[in-house]
């Protein structure tokens, strides 16, 4: 299926449950509004209106097909003009205009949220007046190609630092937040990628701004290893979407899912099919119980045959309808912690690529390698021998059936 650029929310939704991702992004099914989501959207909207007058834009990167434009051309007709700082009363008026009633379970809950939001915004306003940031963008939509992966996101705020770099700020209205959340946030990692591919200045900081406590929880920019880990995970999500792998993933998240009635994990069997399927389930239960008993008996019988064959020195044991054939399977295991130093000292480190037992056995048999090195390689291995039984149908029909001893 055609794959749209991945956002953080899309990526997280697929990780949580691929089927819910399909309901939301392919079938476009609506979810029931929830008060805490509505509250968060309203607060973000008002903060955008409050901070936007402070924005001093910074030129974005241009593609190879474009030429650098002037700042006026780059800003275009919708350019932000600094100034017009909002008063406290204008802030409250903006809050009233933005307020939405969707998703609250009661008038009392809505009133509590509304009061919390007003107090939060006024305290944020006072802090902003004291410590004006230097934003270059608010609610900025950025897209990028990340090593073949199309990604995008809306970033709450991008600030210029005192040293000329950029700081990414993401507002959070959640009740609790910690510095660990900032250090581990995949969302901030993705935002770093988006900013680095759209702006020439370096990203110097990543911040989750906890609005309830007015605390900026800062983390250093992600190192290459963290970026690679997220790219790999998002690549796996992209592959799953492309291959239309949309199986449900049951878990605690199911209790708040709006699509339970559509999900095969929770959809009920029609009344007309209950008797037929009940019979099949009961039969399956009975066979599963019998399977365990039979497997235990097979194992005991194979072991008894093995002991008898060892005592008699035979590998073929005739039965009434088949012949039991005793077979031997050998494998080798090596510790790479032992093998690598040995090869390095012999100047053969480049001969070890996959590190599989098969590769090491080839080195042991290689006549171009010093015999002493080969001997030590051989001694570093542990041989594992497994005996198993095959049944040879005397009629020559079915292929031999295996059974381990």
What does this structure look like?
The strands form two sheets. The chain has a five-stranded mixed β-sheet with strand order 1-2-3-4-5, sandwiched between helices. By secondary structure, the chain is an alpha+beta fold. The longest helix has 39 residues, at 274-312. It has two domains: 8-241, Alpha-Beta Complex (Lambda Exonuclease, Chain A), CATH 3.90.320; 301-404, no CATH class. The radius of gyration is 33 Å and the shape is flat. It has 13 helices and nine strands. The model is unreliable at 64-82 (pLDDT under 50).
Shape: flat
Task: Bin the strand percentage.
Answer: 15-25%
Instruction: Work out the number of β strands.
Output: 9
Please trace the helix and strand order, writing H or E for each element: HHHHHHEEEHHEEHHEEHHHEE
Q: Would you tell me the overall average pLDDT? A: 88
Helix content: 40-55%
List strands and helices in order, with pairings:
Layout: H1 8-16, H2 18-25, H3 35-51, H4 71-75, H5 88-98, H6 107-130, E1 135-146, E2 149-160, E3 166-172, H7 179-184, H8 186-196, E4 203-210, E5 215-219, H9 224-242, H10 274-312, E6 316-318, E7 322-334, H11 336-345, H12 357-364, H13 371-379, E8 381-393, E9 401-404
Parallel strand pairs: 3-4
Antiparallel strand pairs: 1-2, 2-3, 4-5, 6-7, 7-8, 8-9
Helix pairs in contact: 1-2, 3-5, 3-6, 5-6, 12-13
């Amino acid at each position: 299926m055609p794959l749209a650029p991945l956002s953080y929310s899309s990526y997280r939704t697929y990780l949580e449950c691929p089927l819910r991702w399909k309901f939301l992004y392919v079938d476009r099914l609506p979810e029931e509004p929830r008060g805490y989501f509505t509250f968060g959207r309203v607060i973000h909207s008002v903060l955008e209106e409050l901070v936007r007058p402070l924005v001093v834009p910074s030129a974005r990167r241009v593609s190879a097909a474009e030429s650098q434009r002037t700042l006026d051309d780059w800003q275009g007709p919708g350019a932000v003009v600094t100034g017009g700082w909002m008063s406290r009363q204008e802030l409250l008026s903006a809050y009233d205009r933005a307020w939405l009633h969707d998703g609250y379970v009661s008038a009392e809950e809505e009133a509590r949220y509304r009061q919390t939001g007003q107090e939060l915004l006024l305290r944020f306003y006072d802090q902003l007046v004291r410590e004006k940031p230097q934003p270059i963008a608010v609610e900025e939509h950025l897209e990028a190609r990340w090593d073949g992966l199309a990604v995008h996101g809306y970033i709450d705020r991008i600030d210029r630092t005192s040293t000329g770099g950029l700081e990414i700020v993401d507002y959070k209205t959640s009740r609790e937040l910690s510095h660990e959340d900032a250090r581990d946030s995949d969302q901030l990692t993705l935002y770093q990628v988006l900013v680095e591919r759209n702006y020439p200045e370096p990203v110097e900081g990543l911040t989750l701004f906890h609005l309830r406590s007015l605390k900026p929880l800062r983390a250093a920019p992600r190192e290459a290893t963290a970026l690679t880990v997220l790219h790999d995970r998002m690549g796996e999500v992209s592959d799953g979407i492309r291959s239309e792998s949309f199986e449900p993933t049951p878990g605690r998240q199911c209790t708040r899912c709006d699509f339970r009635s559509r999900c095969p994990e929770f959809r009920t069997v029609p009344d007309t099919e209950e008797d037929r399927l009940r019979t099949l389930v009961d039969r399956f239960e009975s066979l599963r119980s019998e399977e365990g008993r039979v497997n235990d008996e097979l194992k005991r019988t194979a072991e008894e045959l093995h002991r008898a064959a060892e005592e008699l020195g035979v590998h073929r044991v005739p039965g009434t309808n088949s012949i039991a054939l005793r077979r031997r399977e050998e494998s080798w295991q090596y510790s790479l912690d032992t093998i690598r130093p040995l090869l390095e000292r012999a100047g053969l480190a480049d001969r070890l690529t996959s590190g599989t037992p098969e590769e090491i056995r080839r080195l042991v048999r290689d006549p171009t390698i010093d015999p002493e090195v080969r001997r030590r390689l051989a001694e570093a291995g542990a041989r594992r021998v497994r005996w198993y039984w095959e049944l040879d149908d005397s009629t020559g029909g079915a292929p031999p059936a295996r059974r381990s001893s």
